[in-house]
Design goal:
C8orf32 fold, 5-stranded mixed sheet, 5-stranded antiparallel sheet, Papain-like_cys_pep_sf, Transglutaminase-like, 481 residues, alpha+beta, Serine Threonine Protein Phosphatase 5, Tetratricopeptide repeat, TPR-like_helical_dom_sf, Transglutaminase-like domain-containing protein, elongated
Length: 481
């Protein structure tokens, strides 16, 4: 017994030194990370501290925190953050927040939702009140996956999600340079043309429209899922140089779901078969064996058609960047070049989804956003959901799984299977995508708009993600101990 006590006394200073060394390693890592901006070096010190003090939640936390926020490696960070969660007997909020955000960045939205609910439960069991961050984040997660009803139920008053999903009215005044555009299409001698009005959808209705067009007869017409303003002049007369279009559009995002419930391959007997197979003379690369093999490889791990669609769209967002328009005659060539604008994103996504035999179509519209002002033409797509017989909007540029559409986005045209911007109808009248008037001479100086939030009785001026989504850090390092 005496010898045993002597051994303990002999090794006690060494054990103490190791304990102190773990804290020193941790503090040195903090200094390297925050004061000297050397995250890779800091990571080594945090790993040493974790090896020496494996039961301190702050040690694996800082490893995961550094990997996720500084070295942009959430996949490697996740196991460390989950370990810090398990060691967090004090119920500090930081391990919870970072783990949830890490799951979100990895696209594991459903698991992030589960973890958020579990974190709130654990905090309450420990006698703590979860901060506002948790319900706001939970509402954002539901919003991200398209469950707007659940998002609204959870979102606290005054939160970003609440304001984004508030019912709104959008008033638009658009001075369209008509003569210039009809000459560009070489149809100025036609006595009747149609231009698109905003597409009606479950969450969006055109309440009223008015056209100030002296000497022009106007009427509203619906065709191929689009609404048109038909313009007719008397034979032998000239078209007015400009027409004024006034629109009032009501939106209620409580009725939208941005994630299809069920996808299935289209067959020749389906009404939307053309939207799953149209190749437009090779543009969508549906007869290119290399492109088809690439889509098959990208989506191979998906068990359902919906999962395969997610894999295809996630690949596009990861490997294609918004930038300079590229040359080429097919979506395969565009994808290989790796950069293009929103229209290229949409066309490539159409090609990838049609390679899976999913009905999909492109939309052109106006984003009435204030970042940047005033309004921008924007291209997105719609995926056909067989279970609801509904076209579901999706922004292929969005970093969410089935991309969240900006609430104030107004689609003016749902494309035909070939995605033509002008279409000769069966009655011989040309139907033209109004957004082309924006791109070709009726730009931002010819359009004005006002967005009124019905619930808040205020004008919406911004549309951006909440701060906690944009900011990688959740509140700095944990206490040094």
């Amino acid at each position: 017994m005496k010898r045993f006590l002597c051994l303990i006394l002999f090794y006690f200073p060494i054990l103490t030194t190791f304990a102190e060394s773990g804290a020193e390693k941790y503090n040195q890592g903090i200094d390297l990370l925050y004061n000297k901006n050397r995250p890779q070096d800091a990571l080594s010190y945090f790993k040493d501290a974790y090896r020496l003090e494996p039961n301190q939640w702050s040690r694996p936390f800082m490893i995961g925190f550094t990997l996720k926020n500084y070295l942009q490696n959430p996949k490697e960070a996740l196991p460390y953050l989950e370990t810090s969660w398990q060691l967090n007997a004090e119920r500090d909020e930081l391990p919870y927040k970072e783990t949830i955000q890490c799951l979100e960045s990895l696209g594991k939205i459903d698991l992030a939702i589960q973890k958020n609910s579990l974190a709130q439960k654990e905090l309450k069991s420990a006698g703590k009140t979860p901060s506002q961050w948790f319900p706001e984040n939970l509402a954002w997660l539901y919003y991200s996956k398209g469950d707007t009803n659940q998002a609204l139920q959870i979102a606290p008053n005054g939160s970003w999600v609440k304001s984004q999903l508030a019912p709104r009215t959008i008033d638009i005044v658009w001075n369209i340079q008509l003569t210039k555009l009809l000459e560009a299409w070489r149809i100025q001698n036609n006595d009747t043309v149609r231009i698109t009005l905003p597409v009606d959808r479950p969450y969006q209705k055109t309440v009223s429209f008015r056209s100030d067009s002296p000497g022009i007869q106007t009427k509203r017409k619906t065709s191929r899922g689009n609404q048109f303003l038909e313009l007719k002049k008397d034979p032998g007369t000239e078209w007015p140089q400009q027409i004024r279009l006034e629109l009032k559009i009501d939106q209620n995002l409580r009725r939208v779901g941005s994630r299809p419930a069920k996808l299935k391959p289209s067959s020749p007997n389906d009404p939307y078969y053309a939207w799953a197979t149209e190749n437009r003379d090779g543009l969508f690369s549906l007869e290119d064996p290399e492109f088809l093999a690439k889509v098959e490889e990208i989506t191979a791990s998906g068990n359902t058609l919906g999962e395969k669609a997610e894999l295809a769209l996630s690949y596009l967002r990861k490997n294609y960047k918004y930038g300079t328009r590229v040359e080429g005659s097919s979506v395969k060539e565009w994808l290989e070049q790796g950069t293009g604008d929103c229209g290229y994103f949409t066309y490539i996504a159409i090609g990838m989804l049609r390679a899976l035999k999913i009905p999909v179509r492109g939309l052109y519209g106006i984003g009435t956003w204030s970042d940047p002002p005033p309004a921008l033409p924007h291209s997105i797509l719609e995926i056909y959901d067989a279970s609801t017989d509904q076209w579901i909007p999706h922004d292929p540029q969005s970093d969410q799984l089935f991309g969240v559409i900006n609430p104030s986005y107004i689609p003016f045209t749902a494309g035909n299977p070939k995605q033509d911007s002008a279409f000769l109808a069966s009655d011989g009248i040309w139907e033209i995508d109004t957004v082309w008037f924006f791109w070709n001479g009726s730009g931002k100086d010819t359009i004005s708009y006002q967005v009124t939030l019905s619930d808040a009785n205020q004008i919406a001026s911004r549309s951006a993600k909440p701060d906690y989504v944009k900011t990688p850090q959740s509140g700095g390092p944990p206490p040094v101990r």
